[in-house]
Amino acid sequence: MRRQRSLVWAAIAIAVSAMCVAALTELWHPGIGGGGRSLAVVLRMVTYCIGAVGVIFTGTACMRLDRVVTSIARQFPADPSAGGDVSDMKEPLRLRHTIDAHLRDRDERINRLEAGLKGLRIQAQLSERRERHTEAIIYSLRDAVLVTDESGRLLMANEPAAHLFGFAAQGLCRRPLAEVVGPEHRDFVELLHRSRQSGVEATRREMVFAGPDGPHTFDTIVSCVLDAGKVSGVVAVLHDITREKEISQMKNDFVSHVSHELKTPLASITAYSEMLADGEADDEETREEFYTIIQTQAQRLNRLIEDILNVSRIESGLIKVHKEPVSLTILIEQQMQMIKGFAEEKNITVTGQKPIVFDQVYADKDMISQVIVNLLSNAVKYTPAGGSVRIETHVNEADGLARVTVTDTGVGIPADEVEHVFDKFYRVAANNKQAKGTGLGLNLVKQIVEKVHDGRVFVTSQVGVGSTFGFELPLATRELVETA
Amino acid sequence: MAGKKVLIADDEVHIIHVVAIKLRNNGYEVICAGNGAEAYDLACREKPDIVVADYQMPFLTGIELIQKLRENEQLRDLPVILLTARSFAISDEQKASLGVEECLSKPFSPRELLKTVEDILYQRAVALKC
To answer: What ipTM does this complex have?
Structure first.
């Protein structure tokens, strides 16, 4: 740049010098003389000087323009393909271009890395969130869940699992499962081990574990976690199916009992009908007896079906209830008459009580009659021949309650079974052979008293001494009785 | 087969009644028991030719009665017809192992029961002659 400037100044100096020389030459020329001629020379010299000054200004302006152009050229890299005056700037511009390209490349890589890092951060967050969700699900499950690694070391166990196997859920990470659950659960550890060895995705088995309240059956599902075809862990889920099995067994027992109970009167009806058709009844008296048996057995069948339906209706809330003020004493008298024949067959005495002044309850007469007859017939059924059954009513006006008790001198109920006697289909195992039944009678009593009449049922019993079953109902108000 | 002694064991008084009438009307001697334990005692005492027993009875069930009869040297070969309200209560294997001759489902036909009793006693008689 400095060289160019020097060249420009040199050109200007040569131009000015040339003009001055020209002016002097004009002045000293021998052919020139006189006053008019001198004025012309002066004017010419002035013109030359003005021209020289103009050249100087032009040179200065060129240099300024050059500086501006150079300055702009510095800001913009020169096109290497272009020729001309920028050729001597190619190297630094190329260098600059390379550096800029590197910088751009670096920026792009940084941007890519930042984007990748951001993605990884998001993935890590999602993964962490998923893990927290999984943990929350596992810890909130009522089923026992255990997770082990590929070597059988415990990775995770929720509270039900800790409770089932008797260990503390915290601080067990990476301890061998066999060590954590103890030798009494060897079968379970073995199941997980075999599952891990075989690599089978899921194995299902029913396993029984001892619990504080007796053995519990678990539906155990063991699943292998596969990573690129290799087992990287095992998940065991244990679902307690003890209650489900009990219910299933109860249902089976119920179907079996009901089928037996329904078929027994049906068998009598069928057999006596056939006997009549075959002329096996010789005389009118025998025929009459057969007809009566058919009729009573049909009634028995109907009662049984009604019992089953009533339990179902009460449970589903579909039963029609007709409540009115009814006297318990009157209902008891009526039901005692009904049970009399059955009791006499077994030589059992059934006694009642003296009438009570006010023992009216606001109840469905038919339903409470059924409650009384069920309690009386149960008492007779489970009382050995020669025993006694007593039914009593107590009125507590202060509490507004009427209480009916049926006390027998029967076989009694073992203490651990007393609390279950009102359960549906439940039959006391020890007394099963004593009498037949569906396990519905007492459940019906409970449903009618507690669900339909807001009352309460109760029982006390002693094996070999007898039992007292009873119920309490709210007394009807005198206003209600008068209105009725 | 008239004159043969049949033991009927059932806790349903009407079933005993109807079966007894049917068999007596056809010349059989009938003895009755209201439960399994009573039936076993009666079998030991009376030595019947055949037993008709209910599957579900108090004190001793039909199956338990048969098992006790099979344990008794004198009653081991006593033919038994089982009456059951549960058609699937006894398997063929159980029937064979207990030596139950026939299993009739309730409701049953007294006519069919009589024929079964006659057939079993006839086969036993033929077997004895051979």
So the answer is: 0.90
